[in-house]
Amino acid sequence: RKEVEQDPGPFNVPEGATVAFNCTYSNSASQSFFWYRQDCRKEPKLLMSVYSSGNEDGRFTAQLNRASQYISLLIRDSKLSDSATYLCVVNVMNYGGSQGNLIFGKGTKLSVKP
Amino acid sequence: DAGITQSPRHKVTETGTPVTLRCHQTENHRYMYWYRQDPGHGLRLIHYSYGVKDTDKGEVSDGYSVSRSKTEDFLLTLESATSSQTSVYFCAISDRGLYQETQYFGPGTRLLVL
User: Fold this and answer.
1) How many CA atoms lie within 13 A of B72 on its CB side?
2) Which of A60, A98, B48, B85 gives the lowest tally of CB atoms within 10 Å of its CB?
C-alpha cells in the first residue's frame, strides 16, 4: 500500500460547484497533514494545514480522521482560478520522536470550467 | 514569496555528462531539500540538508550527490547523467517547528538527458 494515496482525477466541474478531495495515508505515526496546490508547470505551494478538529479558510475546508487515516479537502463555490493539482502531504515522526520528512501524494487534478 | 531561486531553470545534457543544479535561498532557513517530480510518481525526496555540511539521503538518492558549504546554497550533482534522471527538480526550504513545518519550493529546474 502506498504511503499517501489520492484519486488522480481529473475532476472536471463547472464554476460554482462544490468539489471534494480525499486522501488516505498508511502510517499511523503520521503527525502533521497538509494540502498543497500546484499550478501547471509551477512549484507546489502550501494551501492549508489540516488540524485534528478540522479547519476552514474561506471557501476551503479541511478535515482529518485519524482513526480512519483519512484527510479531505472541500472547495465550495469553485472558481476558474481553483484549477490546479491538489497534493495531499503528511509528515511522519522519526523513531526518536523528531519530525521526519514530508511524504507527498501524487495529486488530484482539478479543472473548473465556465 | 519565499526567496528561493534555482539555476539553471532548463537544461539539456547528454548521457554520461556531469550536471550540477543550484538552489539559493535568502531566508536563512536551516533545512533544504531536493525533490524530483515525475508523472505517476509525485514528488520524491532525493537528499536533504539540516545544516552546513550536514546532509542525508532521501527516498531516491542513487546517482545523486549534494553539498552544502554555506547556509544559502544547496547543490545537487548528477555525477554521470542518465536518461532516467530526466525530470523536474524542485528545491525546498523550511525551518522545522516543534510540531509542524512548512516547506517553500523554488521554481524548479527542467532537466532533459538525451
Assistant:
1) 8
2) A98
Residues 6+ apart with CB under 8 A from A98: none
Amino acid at B95: D
**Contacts A101 to B, Cβ<8 Å:** 33, 45, 48, 58
**Are the Cβ atoms of A87 and B101 closer than 8 angstroms?**
no
- Would an 8 Å CB–CB cutoff place B112 in contact with chain A? no
pLDDT tens-digit readout, B55-103 = 999 989 999 999 999 999 999 999 999 999 999 999 999 877 655 678 8
Partnered with residue A88 across adjacent β-strands are: A35
E strand segments, chain B: 4-7, 10-13, 19-25, 31-38, 42-51, 54-57, 64-70, 73-78, 87-94, 104-105, 109-113
- Residues paired with A61 in a beta bridge: A56, A74
Q: What is the DSSP letter of B19?
A: E
Touching A: B residues 74-93, CB under 8 Å: 90
- Residues B96 and B31: their CA atoms lie apart, in Å, by 8
Helix (H) or strand (E) holding A60: strand A60-65
A101 to B58: CB separation less than 8 angstroms, yes or no: yes
How far apart are alpha carbons B86 and B15 in whole angstroms?
A: 10
pLDDT in tens, A19-39: 999 999 998 877 889 999 999
